[in-house]
Amino acid sequence: MPKTYQTLAAEKKAQQWDKIPKAWRLPTEISISHDASNVMDILRTCGLLNETEASITSDYDATAILGQLKAGEWSVEQVTVAFCKRAAIAQQLTNCLTEIFFDDAIERAKKLDLEYHASSGGKALPPLFGLPVSLKDSFQVRGYDTSTGLGCFVGEPAGENSALAALLIDLGAVLYCKTNLPQSIMTGDSDNNIFGRTLNPRNKFLTAGGSTGGEGALLALRGSILGVGTDIGGSIRVPAVCNGVYGFRPSVGLVPHGGVRDLNPPGTDGVLSTAGPLSTSLRDCSLFLKSILQADTWKYDSTSVSVPWLDLKPKPKLRIGVALNDGVYTPSPPVRRGLKQAVDLLRDNNDIQIVPVNLPDVKLYYQDYVRYMTLSGSDVSPPDPSSATFRLTEKHYYELFARTSEPVIPSLKATGLLSLPGTTLQGFFDLNARRAEAAKTYLKLFRDNDLDAIVMPPAPHTAVPLDTWSTITYTGLWNYLDYPAIVIPVDRVRDIDSADDLSNAKFGPDDEKLYSLYTGPEQYKGAPVCIQVVGYRHKDEALVNAAAVLDSIINKI
Amino acid sequence: MPKTYQTLAAEKKAQQWDKIPKAWRLPTEISISHDASNVMDILRTCGLLNETEASITSDYDATAILGQLKAGEWSVEQVTVAFCKRAAIAQQLTNCLTEIFFDDAIERAKKLDLEYHASSGGKALPPLFGLPVSLKDSFQVRGYDTSTGLGCFVGEPAGENSALAALLIDLGAVLYCKTNLPQSIMTGDSDNNIFGRTLNPRNKFLTAGGSTGGEGALLALRGSILGVGTDIGGSIRVPAVCNGVYGFRPSVGLVPHGGVRDLNPPGTDGVLSTAGPLSTSLRDCSLFLKSILQADTWKYDSTSVSVPWLDLKPKPKLRIGVALNDGVYTPSPPVRRGLKQAVDLLRDNNDIQIVPVNLPDVKLYYQDYVRYMTLSGSDVSPPDPSSATFRLTEKHYYELFARTSEPVIPSLKATGLLSLPGTTLQGFFDLNARRAEAAKTYLKLFRDNDLDAIVMPPAPHTAVPLDTWSTITYTGLWNYLDYPAIVIPVDRVRDIDSADDLSNAKFGPDDEKLYSLYTGPEQYKGAPVCIQVVGYRHKDEALVNAAAVLDSIINKI
User: Fold this and answer.
1) What are the residues facing A456 on neighbouring strands?
2) Rounded to 5 degrees, what are φ and ψ at B132?
3) Is there a contact between B268 and A432 if contact means CB atoms under 8 Å apart?
4) Catalytic residue at A136?
5) Helix (H) or strand (E) segment spanning residue A356
6) Keywords assigned by UniProt (chains A, B) (predicted)?
7) Diameter of chain A by CA atoms?
8) Fewer CB near the last or first residue (10 Å), C or N of chain B?
9) Mode of pairing for the β-strands spanning B453-456 and B318-322
């Protein structure tokens, strides 16, 4: 008889616990059941990190750590141990990890240190030499499960690495853990029946976001300074928003996505998932993109789109479109304030020209986006096993869950994605034809305004209470169009961010309902406020360059 | 009452005739009804071209002509008139043109000449300054029909230029005519009910190929030295083979394809058409690609894939895979001989390493390719107007033909494409999933053998008798995988190319049947023999570089 999900979960959690050395375990009184809603300080106060480890993990971004590693200031082992330890603590505080392979990582680190000495002082080191990189659970790492939090996939270790994992290893990175995500990988709450829910380290009553929520929490606690997620509607950017880190959704195909497990039916087309980084600095998004685009991605992944890194010169002047909202949902008071604050700083800068823009027809396109997400349909009530629609759904959602009798998580139920009708081939072509028109409209917006980027909110709200993140119009638009987009943290919810009158929500009843979610600063304490910077399709390098300029102005870096 | 196709054809042919100045008309005894099977010499002997015009159009490729134009050796008007005149003669010999706009071209040429003088001697001239470029009829040129040879689209002049036409104009090119293609744009014979059939100038009993057959014939007669076609299964490469010119199918999206009329249902996905050049030299394929990739293609076409030109250094050594056949059809004796001759020359060169390769599973992939081509189905016997399948077919083939009561051309009937069942959304996903596996297999072939390119036949035969080109396995494979491929002419059918025993066709009855088409050198007199050079997806620049090296060795350029 197959194991139930409860048994599998218990076994998996026990394995996780075993992978954390005793010396790295928190005293029970400050473990995951702690009372504080914000655990950010515990890393500093728990006493498990020595001074050097605290400094390595606290005071440097990936670019700076690489500099230290390549200069021989720190050994790879030293850096790896520091991040493994910090990730172990983060795990105990937020439940952000899935697979833990600290032992393998430290062993690899030692080998890299030997190579370093053999190379006599840093010559010809690979671009990411010795850099610890964490991966969302859906990436395959040889020898470890890619369960994606589903009972039915537990105990099936990957036979080979995902394309990106293989590439990162070849680039010199040290992989040391994988991170949590939601059941189905399609919600804004990283919660599943095997690993449980990842908590937001800044406020455990707010969501850590999804689907790359484990990375979000891990990065916020600096248990990683470079994590990789995937994004088909906002799955990198939503957790970046919730946890206050940088998150970059590149154009599809630029970063190898081969061998990533998602629960779409094989061969599904339309809107595609893309892999990208979460980081603690904007320049680390650059570092990631540059390292990947300078490599022969095509050798790793037959679906690669070979747009190379061009070492573009920074533009002296930038024209930045500003969209205050998406015409579907009104941003909550802290989001409006954060955007205004950022745009005011940009407007004051002589090198930035602000161009107010409206985003055309987002509501219409979002409807089509949702249709793309549910091409095969998911309406199993009443189930009709003879229909092709049911066959797909059954196979790809309910059937997977049913194998170990696991229930549907609350946030997945809430999305409504499990009760939508599918479409036909003609319906799919109609979606494509409408999207082709949308692409022309947005090309015109960028071209005719001569825009280098658009600045807008990444969502109509900050992190929200658990299981209430219900819409991704602000992020999903760019997946629909396949435009690159970066989330930049600009502030936190402050006492001045009072909830205001519902009449400010001017786009109808759905908008009002969402707007009412913001109840004022108290409940949202610690929630980061972010902006989103969007570039043109395939102009990812130009986007990271422009975003770096904006970030330096807004965050005074 | 709407006009019949006969009326529309008569009107259109009369318009065409009016567009050819009297002084450029051939004496009736050497007009299109001439007896000679090969009309290549008539251009030289007809006396319509003066010495300079003959030299401009005969002795230079596009790169050289550009050099002369930019150096001020020739005026744009002079070059334009020479090519207009030569195209007019080619039209009278082979029926290769559709829309003729010599007047506009000459007017534009005069303007460019003024600009040239204003720019004081050639500084900051656009990359294709003054170069005459011909376009397949399916490209829109403002003010002219894009009938694609269908009665129902006659008399509907385009309101705007196709993306590529607009880009070429911005790059300085002079557009002067559009060229013939088959009804449906889906056969190997450029024949339709409005313009009639384009003849092969080297042998009028053999096909001029399709679907870019008008360009093929025009280029062979040097009524153009740079023409642009489209290729979804071989439509650039087949006419290149038939007419003995260079033909390059780039990866999808690199050359803007927006605003090209094809008869696929809007939103069709799967295997996509791509735009590319036909030319009289390999370096002109390079010139074309470079000029396009250095431009901001994204500004012209929202479907562009922005792979930039990198000015790659030529590789000192090349590893070239050689596939003697595709495992489906056995090449005819002249094709085998031509390939062997070319490969022998390459093998003798110290900078080339030959790697024998087999192309895996082409038969299987070709079946899927055909399914991609008929996703919406075309089985209208018995017609069922209530089904979605019929709706599409009706709209996109038969219904278009029915509007002016035009019959189906013989080569379209012969393809069988009009009587295939369509598929479902699930069937489409299954095709995608199988293709993803195929892409991995072919990535492995390229990567594990460290190949720079594959050399193989472009077809199992040369140009064949009218309406008998029935298969495109050799070219379609690369559309299926979206790999760039170039056709290089290497020889002609010679007296030594005797037909041999059917037992040489070892891949089954279909192979035997096709193999029997070759009856010996007499019937195939003048037919060019070509090779195909295939590169990896998106590595188009590397491919044109490699092909240039191979071309220089094989054709001793």
Assistant:
1) A532
2) -70, 130
3) yes
4) yes
5) strand A352-356
6) Hydrolase
7) 70
8) N
9) parallel
Which chain B residues have a beta carbon less than 8 Å from that of A265?
426, 429
A22 catalytic per annotation: no
Residues 6+ apart with CB under 8 A from B454: B320, B321, B322, B323, B357, B359, B446, B533, B534
ipTM of the complex: 0.94
Interface probe, candidates B299, B302, B394, chain A, greatest A C-beta count within 10 A = B302
CA A314 – CA A319 distance, rounded (Å): 13
DSSP state at residue B455: E
**How many other C-beta atoms can be found within 10 angstroms of the C-beta atom of residue A8?**
22
- What pLDDT tens digit does each residue of chain B (557 aa) get? 789 999 999 999 999 999 999 999 998 777 655 567 899 999 888 999 999 999 999 999 999 999 999 999 999 999 999 999 999 999 999 999 999 999 999 999 999 999 998 876 556 899 999 999 999 999 999 999 999 999 999 999 999 999 999 999 999 999 999 999 999 999 999 999 999 999 999 999 999 999 999 999 999 999 999 999 999 999 999 999 999 999 999 999 999 999 999 888 889 889 999 999 999 999 999 999 999 999 999 999 999 999 999 999 989 999 999 999 999 999 999 999 999 999 999 999 999 999 999 999 999 999 999 999 989 876 544 344 444 433 344 456 788 899 999 999 999 988 877 778 889 999 999 999 999 999 999 999 999 999 999 999 999 999 999 999 999 999 999 999 999 999 999 999 999 999 999 999 999 999 999 999 999 999 999 999 999 999 999 999 999 999 999 999 999 98
Omega into B182 within 30° of 0, i.e. cis?
no
A205-221 burial string, b = 16+ CB within 10 Å, else e?
ebbbbbbbbbbbbbbbb
Question: Does the CB of A542 have a partner CB in chain B at under 8 Å?
Answer: no
The C-alpha of A438 sits at a distance from chain B's nearest C-alpha, in angstroms, of: 9
- Amino acid, single-letter form, for residue A179: T
Q: What is the pTM of this model?
A: 0.96
Write phi, then psi, for A479 (nearest 5 degrees): -70, -40
The stretches of B516-554 forming alpha helices (DSSP H) are 540-554
Neighbouring residues of B328: CB distance < 8 A, sequence distance ≥ 6 = B362, B363, B366, B471, B473, B507, B510, B511
**Cross-chain CB nearest to B302 (options A266, A306, A443):** A443
Q: What phi and psi, each to the nearest 5 degrees, are found at residue B226?
A: -150, 115
| Residue A389: closest C-alpha in chain B | B426
Could you give the residue numbers annotated as active site of B?
Answer: 136, 211, 235
Q: Which domains does chain A have, with CATH numbers?
A: 5-299 (3.90.1300.10), 320-374+426-554 (3.90.1300.10)
d(CA B213, CA B186): 11
Q: Which residues contact A132 (CB under 8 A, 6 or more apart)?
A: A79, A80, A83, A84, A105, A173, A174, A175, A176, A224, A225, A226
Query: How many Å apart are CA B48 and CA B89, to the nearest integer?
Result: 8
Structure tokens at A126: 């690979």
CA distances from residue A134 to A175, A223, A531, A556 in whole angstroms, order as listed: 6, 9, 24, 28
Rounded CA gap, A148 and B127, in Å? 52
CB A141 within 8 A of CB A175: yes
Backbone angles phi, psi at A524, to 5 degrees: -105, 20
CB neighbours of residue B501 within 10 Å: 7
**Inter-chain CB proximity A432 and B307 less than 8 Å:** no
Asked whether the beta carbons of A197 and A191 are under 8 A apart, the reply is yes
**Interchain pair A436, B302: CB under 8 A:** yes
**DSSP, res B397:** T
CB contacts under 8 A, A 392-431 vs B, are: 392, 422-431
